[in-house]
Design brief:
Blueprint (H helix, E strand, L loop, with lengths): L1 H18 L3 H4 L3 H21 L1 H6 E6 L2 E8 L2 H13 L5 E8 L5 H19 L9 E6 L2 E6 L4 H12 L6 E6 L11
Parallel strand pairs: 2-3, 5-6
Antiparallel strand pairs: 1-2, 4-5
Length: 187
């Protein structure tokens, strides 16, 4: 019942944004950024639609090339996939992950992964040579997923060295894209 209520609220929100013609989302970018933001949103939404249940579970908002993903999914893997799609979409400057996991069957493992991801974010934040806004991190069963668009190869290598030192990280999966690379979303 709660899930249905969330869908109804999300649908109402989406309709209200459509009624506003998206002007609130694009006010910071002006008329020239609106087309790019709409193209980014369309590309991500199309990738989500290809994975049928994703289209209704995750909302996509774009402002100035920054993507906000929100909603709830059943599995951590789905959340990682959604964030990866966001980062791999051409024109994206950043991804904000507000997707929640509904299945908490292994609360202990989930808690460990939350702590690992928080420690990695803090370590990246405290390094003066790394811009933490360039990255999104997520952990699952001790595997750290590093996503984003590093400023340089040196920054990425430095970030990976820092991550390797974080207790609990068993493996790093680099899902970053270089700023000069334009990849189509993966499905």
């Amino acid at each position: 019942m709660m899930r249905i209520l969330c869908y109804i609220i999300a649908a109402g929100f989406a309709l209200s944004l459509a009624a506003c013609d998206g002007n609130m989302l694009h006010s910071a970018t002006g008329a020239s950024g609106t087309g790019t933001d709409e193209a980014i949103k369309s590309s991500i939404s199309s990738a989500f639609a290809a994975k049928s249940d994703m289209f209704s579970q995750v909302a996509v908002d774009v402002n100035g090339g920054r993507v906000l993903l929100s909603g709830a999914v059943d599995e951590p893997e789905t959340r990682i996939w959604a964030v990866e799609i966001g980062w791999k979409t051409p024109g994206v400057k950043g991804v904000i992950d507000e997707i929640e996991i509904q299945d908490m069957s292994s609360l202990k493992d989930f808690a460990k992964d939350v702590v690992i991801a928080a420690q990695v974010r803090a370590a990246l934040f405290h390094d003066k040579d790394i811009n933490p806004a360039n990255y999104t991190v997520d952990a699952m069963n001790g595997t750290l997923y590093l996503m984003g668009a590093p400023a340089s190869k040196d920054e990425l290598e430095r970030a990976e060295k820092i991550i390797e030192k974080v207790q609990g990280v068993n493996k790093i999966l680099d899902r970053t894209v270089t700023k000069s690379t334009t990849k189509s979303p993966v499905s």
